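Look over this one:
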Amino acid sequence: MTYTIKEISEKVGLTAHTIRFYTDKGLLPCSRDKNNRRIFDSESINWLRTIQCLRKCGISIEDIRAYSALCMEGDSTLEARYEFLKKQRDMALNRVEEAKELADYMEHKVHHYEDVLAHRIPDDTNPAARKS
């Protein structure tokens, strides 16, 4: 099955502009019809989902282009693609751990202020409330 840019845009939740950008940058392979319009297939959906995931991980367009080029080269690049994705996964897991630490700290602060507001403890963050 083939898709127009509008159809694939609706399927993956990206704007047609973004999809054009990805094809123009060499991230997303596509074919053209006789009128030179972009035509996509089901494999294009997989490409777009991968690109979306990589972008959400903060990976640059240049790095995604390099990864896409490796994919297009075929099986001879399996090891390089594996290493690329493993590195990105590890970086994402590190960001998750950092986010958990931040959330834990903020949770502690929220509980502190709940206690202060409920008058269970004095506000030790307010210099005016401290006794000299």
